[in-house]
Specification:
Elements: E1 4-7, H1 11-23, E2 27-33, H2 40-44, E3 47-52, H3 63-73, E4 77-79, H4 89-97, E5 101-102, H5 107-114, H6 116-125, H7 141-151, E6 155-159, E7 168-171, H8 174-192, E8 197-201, E9 207-215, E10 221-233, E11 236-242, H9 245-249, H10 253-268, E12 273-281, E13 287-293, H11 300-307, H12 311-319, E14 336-343, E15 345-346, E16 352-353, E17 356-357, E18 360-362, E19 369-373, E20 380-381, E21 388-396, H13 399-412, E22 414-416, H14 422-430, H15 432-435, H16 443-449, H17 453-459
Parallel strand pairs: 1-2, 1-4, 2-3, 4-5
Antiparallel strand pairs: 6-7, 6-8, 9-10, 9-12, 10-11, 11-14, 12-13, 14-21, 15-16, 17-20, 18-22, 19-21
Helix pairs in contact: 4-5, 7-8, 13-14, 14-17
Length: about 450
């Protein structure tokens, strides 16, 4: 058993990991920037060390300072959470070279899956369908035009590194292709330090469905069902749920096929620890591999709610070398769970980030309601990091029960002093198409562009 774990992250995910450590009787070490001196995660941990100035480039992205903090506090392992250094293979290597266990996939698997173009090749090797696209990097405008002509418009230009919707542009003709090519490269360079992009066929009105996987160090890999992440804005997830309404209502055979495909890709990559294999599903029920997220996901709590399996604890046990003590047949799915991401953004001003001091904070509760957050009254949302305040999760005996609890919980969630996305998410939960489970990744575009915007404004 590990005696002490350093949490190389901040915010709600740091709190989540520290809680798991406490339940496993493992001591925790928090690192924090100067902006996070009053953060909950730094107060909850057994020890806390300031690692630099407020910008993440001077704190949470500084491998040398995180390793120094780990050595000073004599930890056994480092949990990177999500974002920051969580998918950095070099960081994983540095941890291992310092005899500190990295709680995540090994660097070999990370390197195999870090480049999305390489990931596509691995998927093909595993016999998993991928969208038609370029065989590798797009090196210049002519290469982009040739590829687009071969596969046909519309196409999607994608950064080979990173995620979160950055470095992605859709193109419907030659002019938008050239513009999108340069914009995606520039955005990817700024966000990930890698300007490489590739092109694939743009699937219109798709569903974004991902499968949670767990793999131990002995070659055992299982999946824990799907999450539907189709409610997105600018490729950023807003609401997630499990099970997927599309699969439940229309294509039940997909769960087995996609789950098997997710496990196969993980096996080909020799994957260990927790990860997520992402797919898109078209209107005819065809699915295509997108990428592998090599970390714990923001939306992992909904999988925990329907399976009863603590994914962060599983990560820690796997990193200790323990074999999986559950097989796929042991995973039982019960009920339905939904997650809303609560962000400090103004939905009436193009979702402009709204950092600032929270004056009043009241989190909802009651049966079937879970709030994962680091916020409190008097806490300041910093402009240096993402705008997430927390995650609201509801669990019910079925989808309708989970939706009703979410609507009620959103109405109870009170945050003053800053703008939040709560009114916007209330409108989503009341939209008749969402209620019927009939939606795709363009749902929010239609919601914002139609008469239902009035409903959002009423909720404000």
């Amino acid at each position: 058993m590990f005696e002490k774990i350093l949490v190389a992250n901040r915010g709600e995910i740091a709190v989540r990991i520290i809680r798991a450590c406490k339940e496993l009787n493992i001591r925790s070490v928090a690192v924090y920037s100067k902006a996070d001196g009053n953060s909950i995660h730094a107060q909850m941990a057994d020890e806390a060390i300031c690692i630099g100035e407020s910008p993440s480039s001077e704190s949470y992205l500084r491998i040398d300072r995180i390793i120094s903090a780990a050595e000073i506090t004599d930890v056994d392992a480092i949990h990177p959470g999500y974002g920051f250094l969580s998918e950095n293979a070099h960081f994983a290597d540095v941890c291992e070279s310092c005899n500190i266990r990295f709680i995540g996939p090994n660097s070999r698997a990370m390197n195999a899956l870090e480049d999305k173009a390489v990931s596509r090749a691995l998927a093909k090797k595993a016999g998993v369908p991928t969208p038609p696209g370029s065989d590798g990097l797009i090196e210049n405008e002519q290469d982009a035009l040739t590829t687009a002509k071969r596969i046909g418009y519309p196409v999607m230009i994608k950064a080979i590194a990173g995620g979160g919707g950055r470095g992605m542009r859709a193109a419907h003709n030659d002019i938008s292709l050239i513009k999108g090519y340069h914009t995606a490269r520039s955005e990817a360079e700024k966000a990930f330090g890698n300007s490489g992009v590739y092109i694939e066929k743009f699937i219109e009105n798709p569903h974004h469905i991902e499968f949670q996987i767990l793999g131990d160090t002995r070659g055992n890999i299982i999946h824990l069902g799907e999450r539907d992440c189709s409610i997105q804005r600018r490729n950023q997830k807003v609401v997630e749920e499990t099970p997927s309404p599309l699969i439940e209502n229309k294509y039940k055979d997909l769960r087995k096929k996609m789950g098997r495909a997710a496990v196969k890709i993980a096996e080909v990559a020799h994957y260990t620890n927790a990860g997520t294999v992402e797919f898109i599903v078209d209107e005819d029920g065809n699915f295509y591999f997108l990428e592998v997220n090599k970390r714990i996901q923001v939306e992992h709590p909904i999988t925990e709610e329907v399976t009863g399996i603590d994914l962060v604890k599983q990560q820690i046990m796997i990193a200790m070398g323990e074999p999986l003590r559950i097989s796929e047949k042991d995973v039982i799915f019960r009920g339905h769970a939904i997650e809303c991401r609560i962000n400090a953004e103004d939905p009436f001003d193009d979702f402009r980030p709204c950092p600032g001091r929270i004056e009043m904070y009241y989190a909802p509760g009651g049966r079937g309601v879970r709030v994962d957050s680091h916020a409190y009254a008097g806490y300041t949302i910093s402009p240096h990091y993402d705008s997430m305040i927390g995650k609201l999760i509801t669990y019910g005996k079925d989808r309708r029960d989970a939706m009703d609890k979410m609507s009620r919980a959103l109405s109870e969630y009170m945050i003053t002093g800053i703008k939040t996305t709560i009114p916007f998410e209330q409108a989503i939960l009341q939209d008749p198409n969402f209620r019927r489970g009939v939606y795709s990744t363009n749902f929010i575009e239609h919601l914002l562009g139609g008469a239902r915007r009035e409903l959002i404004e009423e909720k404000a």
